[in-house]
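ESCALATION

Customer reports they have been waiting on this structure for their group meeting. Please prioritize. Original submission:
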Amino acid sequence: MAPGAPLHVSLVAVPGTLSMPVAGLYEVLNAFPVLASFYDDIPEVSPFQVEIVGAEQTTMAAASGLPITIQRAFRDVVSTDIVIVPTMAVDQNWRPGRHPELVEWLQAMHGTGTVLCSACTGLVILAETGLLDGQRATTHWAIEPVVRACFPEVELCLNEVLLTAGQQEELVMSGGGASWQDLVLYLIGRFVSPGASRAMAKFEMLEQHAEGQAPYLPFLPPVQHGDSLIRAAQHWLETHFTDAGPVAGMAAIANLSPRSLERRFRRATGYSPIDYVQRVRIEEAKRRLEQTDAAIDQIGWDVGYQDPAAFRRLFKRIARVTPGAYRRKFAVPDLGRNTTGYLSRPLYPKRSTGGRKSEQPLE
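Update from on-call: job pushed to the front of the queue and completed.
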């Protein structure tokens, strides 16, 4: 790249690509001319030259059916500064080998010093290059089984929303769904300036998930592990997790000693019995925080914790946010109340009988 020249960004689109992250990344990286009219020290010309690349120069349908125009074929891109593999439709039957030309091209670009990025499920393509073997990586929690089965050498860290790897931090991964926003703000902060990243976040109202993905991760306990005794204990716990001695109860149901339960439970589920109980309880607490107005300490009591402080500490350890912050983030807003900044009356006031607008001010 010549001094002062924009960084070339290759935004990948292949069959199964989702349109939202492609459009979002493309538009944000090209938004600098508008941003510069509102903020000082922002380049008036975009420091990024963004191009959508694919197997062929054509217009293809995204996974949703919306069209994506591919501006250049992989084979015609011999040099680029940044590659982004955005979200793709990945089901539980996904296996490597669907896009060999893309994988080979990514390997070649890495050899020239290109920064390779994945957003959400785009990780499966980045992992297929082998460059993430032995590295920490993140992606959408829903494809955890796929990644673990296909790429066992990759160290999945689903609690994290953004990770870098490689000697030069040339591998960048963001987590699920809207985490492409974290990725684009990271790239702007790294290659333009932290101030430009902050300005873009404010102007576009982009979300930075500082707490990581932990608040968004559901607890999906493994049950297809083949140990019928442990499955019976799990089933019992579904309705007895508030009991005073749930681990002892599971041991009794499984007819196992505490030591045998610990060993077999961890082997079957990946969790110790007490950790499993805690996650079941916190998952129920999340549901109540989302769907009820019950006091936080009452919710802690209802899911099995007599000590409110202990409940709050455990909740934050697992969800990475406090119960109150979790409720504010995920509770469905009541649009009839004005306690959280929502309008307490219609946006447009009713017209008076004389045909004139009411002069009653909006609050």
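Sent to customer with the following note: The longest strand covers residues 48-54.
Escalation resolved.
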